[in-house]
Design a protein that fits this description.
Number of helices of chain A: 5
CATH topology of chain B: Oxidized Rhodanese, domain 1
Oligomer: heterodimer
CATH topology of chain A: Glutaredoxin
CATH class of chain B: Alpha Beta
Helix content of chain A: 25-40%
Strand order of the largest sheet of chain A: 6-5-4-7-8
CATH class of chain A: Alpha Beta
Helix content of chain B: 25-40%
Shape of chain A: globular
Radius of gyration of chain A: 15 Å
Largest sheet of chain B: 5 strands, parallel
Structural class of chain B: alpha/beta
Distance between the termini of chain A: 38 Å
CATH architecture of chain A: 3-Layer(aba) Sandwich
Strand content of chain B: 5-15%
Largest interface: A-B, 45 and 47 residues
Largest sheet of chain A: 5 strands, mixed
Distance between the termini of chain B: 28 Å
CATH superfamily of chain A: Glutaredoxin
Order of helices and strands of chain A: EHEEEHEHEHEEH
Number of domains of chain B: 1
CATH superfamily of chain B: Rhodanese-like domain
Number of strands of chain B: 6
Number of helices of chain B: 7
Number of domains of chain A: 1
Chain lengths: ~170, ~170
């Protein structure tokens, strides 16, 4: 079904996502494990939309994985959402980059849920309470983003009752 | 905000090289545009059209409107695309170029065709250059590439130009 509009409602979500609960989703990652965003409540989540054809994405993903190793025990979790149309090149890229992060396939529905993913990369930071606190479009300024991650990890203690489930 | 805008030419070249090395050989097709000299920069400046100019053309009488084709990701096309445009496959892939050829089969060789992608910043786009070359090689004489400096979201949607959603 086509929907014609000057600025569709879903795209207005880009601005209203900040300081709001992160849109919930459940997907199965490339290893067959369920990735349920709400299961990460209590952790700081870096949600990265990427694709194999996106040069800057391929540069920053290994950095995000390094942060996963560095800060994972402090309650940090990276989730990578590929916006590729097909899974085969994604599997190849994940193997090549030795990614051990949960990687799920995105689509237009998930993109729209996050305000429209109409250019890559796009990275969201989600606080331990599940609130979207940052949206960064384009190649990450990794020193600045790492500072934000560290601040989020330090500012908030683990949320009581949060499962803190992770990978 | 795209921090990559501020990268030096050397930085951009290093970024592209790093991305290529990370994925080679699996990712070679995705960067074929860069590797074969068919990057976005291979398109003559005279054959670029800016978003406001295309938007103006689209407001005109139906018979004066160009044939518009998206040559990037279908996931992005489904989220939002230029009204009336057709999905013509990723230009970086051979099956995408085949789809493009089939989509323009009924278009007269001197009719105005506008192709666009907007998956990522112009300098990194793997699709637009090969798609332009394909049409040129097929004998189309009036092909323009929509110049989207950052991406379709920033340079078309957020400018308030009309979009459609759907397949």
């Amino acid at each position: 079904m086509l929907c014609l509009a000057i600025l569709p409602d879903f795209l207005q979500g880009q601005s209203v996502l900040l300081n709001r609960p992160a849109p919930q989703f459940v997907r199965t990652d490339l290893r067959g494990r369920q990735v349920d965003l709400k299961a990460f409540r209590g952790k700081v989540v870096l949600l990265n939309f990427w694709a194999t054809w996106c040069g800057p994405c391929l540069v920053e993903l290994p950095q995000f994985q390094a942060w996963q190793q560095k800060y994972g025990s402090a309650g940090f979790q990276v989730i990578a959402v590929s916006m590729d149309d097909e899974v085969a090149p994604v599997r190849a890229a994940v193997r090549k980059m030795h990614l051990r992060l949960p990687v799920v396939m995105g689509d237009d529905k998930l993109g729209s849920l996050y305000g429209g993913v109409l250019g890559l990369p796009i990275t969201f930071l989600i606080a331990r309470d599940g609130t979207v606190v940052d949206r960064h479009e384009g190649a990450a300024d990794t020193p600045m983003m790492e500072r934000k991650v560290r601040t989020l990890l330090a500012l908030h203690q683990a949320i009581p009752g949060g499962s803190g489930a992770g990978f | 905000m795209f921090l990559i805008r501020n990268h030096s030419a050397f930085g951009v070249a290093a970024l592209a090289l790093a991305a290529t090395l990370l994925l080679a050989p699996q990712g070679r097709a995705q960067f074929a545009g860069d590797a074969s000299g068919q990057s976005a920069f291979s398109i003559p400046q005279s054959q670029l059209i800016k978003p406001d100019a295309l938007n103006h053309l689209l407001q005109g009488a139906p018979k004066t409107r160009p044939f518009v084709a998206q040559v990037g990701s279908h996931t992005m096309f489904s989220q939002a695309h230029i009204p009336g445009s057709v999905y013509a496959g990723p230009g970086a892939e051979s099956n995408g170029l085949q789809l493009l050829a089939s989509k323009v089969a009924s278009v007269h060789k001197n009719e105005l065709i506008v192709i666009y992608c907007g998956c990522c910043p112009w300098r990194h786009c793997p699709n637009i250059g090969p798609a332009y070359k394909k049409l040129h090689d097929m004998g189309y004489t009036n092909v323009k590439a929509l110049y989207l400096a950052n991406n379709f979201g920033d340079d078309w949607v957020n400018k308030g130009y009309r979009v459609e959603q759907g397949q």
